[in-house]
Design brief:
By secondary structure, the chain is an alpha/beta fold. It folds into 2 domains: 138 residues, 3-Layer(aba) Sandwich (Rossmann fold), CATH 3.40.50.720; 161 residues, L-2-Hydroxyisocaproate Dehydrogenase, Chain A, domain 2, CATH 3.90.110.10. Helix content is 42%, strand content 20%. The strands form 4 sheets. Strands 3-2-1-4-5-6 form a 6-stranded parallel sheet, with helices on both faces. Strands 7-10-11 form a 3-stranded antiparallel sheet, covered by helices on one side. β2, α2 and β3 form a beta-alpha-beta unit. It is globular. The mean pLDDT is 95.
Length: 309
Amino acid sequence: MRPRILVIGAGMVGSTSAASIASRRLGTVYLHDVVEDLALGRAMDINHSLPSSSSDSRVVGCNTLAEAGRADIVVITAGMARTAGMSRLDLLRSNAAVISSLAPVLYDQCPDAQVLLVTNPVDVLTWHLKSLCPSMHVAGLGCSLDMIRLRYLIAQAAGVSADSVGAMVIGTHDDNMVPLVNRASIAGIPARAYLTTDDVQGIVRMTKSAGSTIVNYMKTHSGHYAAGEVIALIVESMVLDRGFVFPVSVCLKGEYGYRDTCLALPCIVGAEGVRRVLEMDLDGQEKASLDACARSMAGQIRSLIPVRS
């Protein structure tokens, strides 16, 4: 039986994700949005594109979540998108309310689903959703998109295929993120062998600023093509039990010395969701940078208290 994959939010990220998931033939995709008939139109458009990728999947547009039934995987992209001049923290109060409204519906309708939260600010909202639905399997997109951007930038600087680049970004999906350039490799060889100091500094800067740069160019929208592809890869790892490693945001129980917070860390993703958090032996600077992310998360969690009361 085909997996049922529910994508909540038919905006640019949600619809792009639905299209990429369907083109990979991963299951039946149910696309929902609160704007009446938006998901139906987006679903029709996506379905018309699927023969070109030889996919026999389909996307079902839904005006209500009840129409989607009991999903195996839920991808949440609903909420306000970041626009020019808006920080991720500016989004928190508005999007926390969206997650709060979705939580009881998901808990009742899809209690056993693997939930991938994409809505920003993703790390603190992952904590928020997990605290509202503690028994559900919840992970956030975390720094997965940033990792793909880092691989692309290293490949461009070194003049190699991004397929040959291994790289990781950890921490939080904001200005505090920690691109681990010194641990990156090209075909097993340390990437620093192909990069100058200026290259490294530029790569770190561009990895951190990529999202804001795209927003500044587009004015009223944020990036969605890369995000859609990354989301589809994570869903593929769940559906096909691939065991791909992504820096998804997870609620920690002592890993790296942290508890009661969510951080993006390398995780094995499989049929059961996050199978395992991989612990690296971080050097002093890397750990200090990760500690800064944890402190930032603590502040964001405190700022959620008025929203939750």
